[in-house]
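Reminder to self: keep the SMILES exactly as supplied, no canonicalising. Ligand is zinc ion.
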Amino acid sequence: MLNIVLYGEPILIQKAQKVKEFDQNLERLTLDMYEAMKHDNGIGLAAPQVGISARLFVVGLENEPPRIFINPRIVAMSEESSEYEEGCLSFPGLYFTVARPSAVDIEAVDIRGRPFRLSADGLLARVIQHEYDHLDGILFIDRVSPAKRRRALAHYSRMLNM
Ligand SMILES: [Zn+2]
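Structure tokens returned for the bound complex:
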């Protein structure tokens, strides 16, 4: 089972490398990531969260097939935004409300390197944006006001010391 890296590890705040090899190792990695995500009851997981600098993430919403996004690009966002309580497997136990665009269009390639485009709204759009941020070293605590960020981190470090 892949280990999920927690906040504090430098890889979580670095920009991930583009995926270039579409081979069995990539397939294995995505399967292992999916398994680790499900094991921790997550709905999305990005490669930097398992210590690998690669621009890819997996999404697993309830009652939906697994989705894999490799070398993704968000190409459009709705002007309308919405708020939702997010968590992150790299911050176990920390949840807070984050505002993000309600809908996005994303382009990516699949496990064989074949391009696809997807329009997403609702929870899927939410997860896509959260995971996409991980590929650029951006964390959900970076998407709130500095005051809220400080409160969230203070709460998180208290929780870790419990
Ligand atoms: Zn996350």
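Points to follow up:
The helical segments are 24-39, 122-135, 146-161.
The two ends are 26 Å apart (CA to CA).
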